[in-house]
Amino acid sequence: MRKEHEPLPKDLRRALERVLEAEPGKVDLLEELQQAWRLLAWARREDDGPGPACDDLEGELLFLPGRAWDWFLDLPARLVRAGHVAEARRFAHGVARIWQPWDLLADLALALAEALRRTDARIEIEHCLARFPKVAWVQIKCAAAGLALGDDAGAERRLRRALKLSPSQPLALAETLRLLVPLLERTGRAADAVPLRLELQDLDAQNRRREESLVATSRRFRFDDDDDGEDEDDLQPGAASESGCGKAPLSDTRAR
Fold it and tell me: Comparing C-alpha atoms, which of 111, 83, 100, 90 is closest to residue 36?
């Protein structure tokens, strides 16, 4: 049985802090990978399913210095760009055992395609599409991977599929149109792209207003707490957000 609030081993915490606080390029990428594997092994130390492991992983990354989550999730793409393809695939699939596999593995496929690792990219694309056929963001990212590989026809099929899957997901729908509109224009169908471009402009405006509203709500939440006499230092990061393992929406920035 996993112990509640079991702390990260001190030597591992020091190693991770050294990696995260170092200037860019000062730590070898494979050394970063080694420490990330150690963190993942610690999170998966008990055979009690992905939920508790994900909770422990998220909890530690939240309180490590810098943008630890971004560092951890961006490692596969950085490894691909550095030519460490096998290591990137192994790590991404390892993390995907406990955290949003549809997100991580589609990102991996896109990174491989952008690096023109054609065979590896196609393997990951096919794996993602077969495993997550009804996830709009998988269709979108695999479409972007197809575009990077020069597969316009395959990319368009996935984008058309994403349109059907994302009518109530404004961020996903906007990202789909952001890829589909220039594809149509580039392939001689500019007239078909016109209404979609207008729809994209409207969606972008709606999404900006929604984001501004969320920021304003978050600020009011903090001010209300301060008025109640709660010490700001006692507020936990992310307290006002609906985060959690497998619940947080995929971000636009990571989808591009």
Answer: 90
Domain boundaries defined on the chain: 1-98, 100-227+252-256
Domain 100-227+252-256: assigned CATH number = 1.25.40.10
CA 96 distance to own-chain centroid: 11
Digit-coded pLDDT (tens) for 56-100:
999 899 989 989 999 999 999 999 999 999 999 999 999 999 999
In the block, residue with structure tokens 């990174």: 111
Q: Tokens 């951890």 map to which residue? A: 72
> Cα separation of 33 and 87, whole Å?
9
**DSSP assigned state of 242:** -
Cβ pair 104, 80 in contact under 8 A: no
User: Using CB atoms within 10 A of its CB, is residue 222 exposed (0-12), middle (13-18) or buried (19+)?
Assistant: middle
Query: Is the Cβ–Cβ distance between 39 and 13 less than 8 Å?
Result: no
Check if the beta carbon of residue 46 is closer than 8 Å to that of residue 52: yes
Query: Is this prediction's pTM over 0.70?
Result: yes
